[in-house]
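Each lists chain and fold; for instance:
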Amino acid sequence: MRILALDVGLKRIGVALYLENIPLPLDAILRKNRHQAAKEVQELIEKYAISKLIVGLPKGGTSEEEMSKRVRHFVSLLEFSGELVFVDEAYTSKEAQSLGVVNSRKKDGKLDSLAALIMLGGYFGG
């Protein structure tokens, strides 16, 4: 099974890959605009022949409804016919930060991809 997990944000998209039973964080996608970001995600879907897409949705908070709309719209830009699963991404960024393995002050997306990896682990019950 080949799975791609996405932590979709307004500036960066964290990306994690589950390939041959091995979960891996990938380089985050730095968003210039939604079409450029969707194109880069589409390239990953095709490159790795992804069969399942796991996408985080924010639960709780004041911007939950607005961000959920934005995330769902972003996913609608993708040409993906495999299984699509939305999961709760609440606190994954805080959990990623608490691991202390990446510099959270850098805006390079490593923290976002680690959050996507944590979402992937949560999906598998880990």
